[in-house]
Design goal:
The protein has 121 residues and is an all-alpha fold. It has one domain. 69% of the residues lie in helices and 0% in strands. The C terminus is likely disordered.
């Protein structure tokens, strides 16, 4: 179980990251990165899917389908809120979100940091 799975469970979100990975033919770590990126990007300015794609390198078509699987804008809003309301998730979001202006000035971008959290290299 990934850190994101644990955090989502504690935050009351029943998101089956492994099921999403299987449905879309993704590695479970990539699916977890996609879910985290979409949840984080939902609160940022601009298009959620394009923002998440820019941060992860995952194509917009796949991310758009995953966003639909998560309940669209309403589901992503709930995911973002759950991540913000849980102290461990808030720390994860802060680390993945980068600089205060959202430009990832803090280092390495979402994909590189998420790989560290989810055990990928």
């Amino acid at each position: 179980m990934s850190l994101l799975d644990s955090l989502l469970g504690m935050a009351g979100q029943n998101i089956d990251v492994a099921g999403i990975a299987e449905k879309f033919g993704l590695d479970p770590d990539v699916a977890a990165q996609a879910v985290a990126a979409l949840g984080i990007a939902h609160a940022q300015p601009g298009d959620t899917v394009e923002t998440a794609a820019g941060q992860t390198g995952i194509d917009t078509g796949t991310l758009s389908q995953i966003a639909g699987e998560l309940g669209g804008s309403e589901g992503l809003g709930q995911l973002n809120q759950a991540m913000q309301n849980h102290p461990q998730a808030a720390g994860l979001m802060s680390m993945l979100g980068g600089g205060e202006d959202g430009d990832n000035a803090g280092g390495g971008g979402l994909l590189g940091l998420a790989k560290g959290f989810f055990g990928s290299e």
